Amino acid sequence: MVVLDGSTVRAFVADEAAFARSVDARFAALDANGDGVLSRTELRRALESFRLLDGAGFGSARPAPLPAEVAALYDAVFEQFTVDRAKFRDEMGRIMLAVAEG
Predict the structure, then answer these.
(1) 31 and 77 in contact (C-beta within 8 Å)?
(2) Which of 17, 41, 56, 95 is spaced 20 to 30 A from 88 at the CA atom?
(3) What's the Cα-to-Cα distance from 70 to each of 34, 41, 42, 53, 86, rounded to whole Å?
(4) Cα–Cα distance between 24 and 17 in angstroms, integer?
(5) CA–CA separation, 13 vs 46, rounded Å?
(6) DSSP code of 53?
């Protein structure tokens, strides 16, 4: 088991080449129909798989938010931007850094 702390996450996001490879590979795996854009279903699957918001991500001791709160957050994130590969990479970096900062 690997426990990631904020400095580890920040270092990963700062390594632009490694971060881009990782996130781009994840995007390609989630873009089930290969159209270069994540649908609401594909995006939700991505966010849920990262486990950033369920209280279990990055060793968080905080209680998990209610499922309705998580669903509302996912919907709000999806509606804010068109989710192509570049946006996905930018938003994942922003989200990961926010989680790293607590």
Answers:
(1) no
(2) 56
(3) 26, 14, 16, 7, 24
(4) 10
(5) 17
(6) S
> pLDDT tens digit string along 58-78?
445 555 555 777 777 777 776
Three-class secondary structure of residue 37 per DSSP: strand
CA distance 10 to 50: 16
Pair 12, 95: CB distance under 8 Å: no
* Cβ proximity of 35 and 83 under 8 Å: no
Distance CA 51, CA 79 (A): 20
Find the DSSP H helices in 1-102.
6-14, 16-30, 40-50, 67-80, 85-101
User: CA–CA separation, 13 vs 24, rounded Å?
Assistant: 13
Q: Cβ of 47: how many Cβ atoms within 10 Å?
A: 21
Q: What is the DSSP letter of 65?
A: P
- pTM here? 0.60
